Amino acid sequence: MSAPSHDCPLCPRLVALRNELRAAHPDWWNAPVPALGDLDAPIAIVGLAPGKHGGNRTGRAFTGDASGDLLFATLEKFGLAEGGEPRGVVILNAVRCLPPENKPEPAEIHACRPFLAAELKAPVVLALGQIAHQSAVKAMGGKLPKHRFAHGAEHRMHRGQWLVDSYHCSRYNQNTGRLTPEMLEAVVARAIALARPEAN
User: Would you say 40 and 121 are in contact if contact means Cβ atoms under 8 Å apart?
Assistant: First the structure.
């Protein structure tokens, strides 16, 4: 079970929204959004879920909305993307389908976790936001009380992987100053340093 099917039936609420949007916007992707990039890359970035006009519309994680604009601009600065294509990084979401109001329910996060666990093999994982952090910890077999979310926090997981936390690069977080481009650059730089210890 490495990825959900195009018509994944696991979450009734998300299926209902998907069908509604397929009727309203038949030219959109409107399906579980797959991993973007190389699953064997040394760095994985985990977001929350596709945005309505981002991944849900384009079929590409973090593509087509403000959160993706900041993420890809940052990745390009570090040579981890070129022309909107990841280079040496894979981009995933904790929940593969668009949730109403961008708020997945716990059961939906849980139902999607096996897909995340199957693809979260990178030595270094960068989690964008608390829900992505929690789902990544569980997908990597960790315990949440031992690994608390905080921007810039680093966690050594028991299987040897590193988990680095960042606030999500949502439009809201950008507009309120909760996450600045400099803050995101700092955590991306740290993820690169952990992935390339021989260069330090």
Answer: yes
